[in-house]
Amino acid sequence: MLHISQLSGEELTSLPLAELSDVKALKQRLHRQHGMPPRFRQRLLHEGNALDDAVKLDSAMDLQVLIVAFSEVSEQQRRELYYCAASDGRLAEVEALLQLPMDPDAADDVHGILPLRIASQNGHVDVVELLLEAGARVDVRDLQCLGP
């Protein structure tokens, strides 16, 4: 059994191990069923150490969930997210940027086009799904469309 609490000590939930495969699946479930932010803004701690999303959950343990704010990112990182969203096969790089955690709606100053829009325009379904999972909003306009 996994026991998950908030840093305050308040118990959030207990889940059978058989229902989860890894930390990523647990974070996704906490988002869906318990109103936690998307997995990119969650950190699960075991004995004070953050667990990577790929860690297998194969033994009973007590975990704490920490919610982190979006990181301040550089223009270079925003530009990198744009190029990764625009390019096919850069899913791992998009994932790494979102793990900072980076706002999935961060547009760079050069193009002003949101990552979700450029990924969808280029048919990169996996990137679109990842950005949506990270909380990208479909109702946000590109910076280039806003004008003065």
From TrEMBL:
The keyword Zinc does not apply. Keywords: ANK repeat, Repeat. Gene3D superfamilies: Ankyrin repeat-containing domain, Phosphatidylinositol 3-kinase Catalytic Subunit, Chain A, domain 1. ANK repeats lie at residues 111-143. This is Ubiquitin-like domain-containing protein. PANTHER family: ANKYRIN REPEAT DOMAIN-CONTAINING PROTEIN 39, ANKYRIN REPEAT DOMAIN-CONTAINING PROTEIN 39-RELATED. Residues 1-59 form the Ubiquitin-like domain. It comes from the Eukaryota. It holds the Pfam family Ank_2. InterPro entries: Ankyrin_rpt, Ankyrin_rpt-contain_sf, Ubiquitin-like_dom.
